[in-house]
Amino acid sequence: GAVVSQHPSWVICKSGTSVKIECRSLDFQATTMFWYRQFPKQSLMLMATSNEGSKATYEQGVEKDKFLINHASLTLSTLTVTSAHPEDSSFYICSADGRQETQYFGPGTRLLVL
Amino acid sequence: LAKTTQPISMDSYEGQEVNITCSHNNIATNDYITWYQQFPSQGPRFIIQGYKTKVTNEVASLFIPADRKSSTLSLPRVSLSDTAVYYCLVGASSNTGKLIFGQGTTLQVKP
Questions:
Q1: Which residue of B99, B103, B106 is the best one to mutate when testing the A interface, meaning the one whose CB has the most A CBs within 10 A?
Q2: Is A21 in contact with A33 (CB distance < 8 Å)?
Q3: Per-residue pLDDT tens for A66-95?
């Protein structure tokens, strides 16, 4: 139980294009999901909290107009990187809130912007 | 939000027991202590969680002293496949559910 999937697992795009990443909780409902970004050899950095049916809450320094988050249902949250640039290349990971402070993480999406 | 401090790296050999200690001096009353494991290019995986005393599951044990200001993850008889980064996290309840990752401990298991 408690499986979280992400799609796609990796994506390569040209600079200036937008990329959408999906995060799904497969066997449970998640009112809250989280998006992280991880650069090589670094820890996970929380980008935003995604709440079903309401606007996402972004961490300080994360541009909400660049990283659009939509949490339209209890099993799906999407992260859209708009007008992607090479510096947006990173490993994006989502998680879904479980019980007792446990989060269930997706496998991650590797984004490479050329 | 409780800040955690862990060793940056540890080395071990196959078959040994590995203990990774995490300090969290300002842990709040309602906070749980949760450990995750992460392999390269994968999302973190839940290992174990505890509130106080000792917790054991099929992969690890978690020791928490009475003051809860630290915790120790114990991995019995590690193998090469246990080479990973281990994160200690505290304080989601007192931070609207958010987990703030520290640097973690990179465990290198050698043959």
A1: B99
A2: no
A3: 999 998 888 999 999 999 999 999 999 999
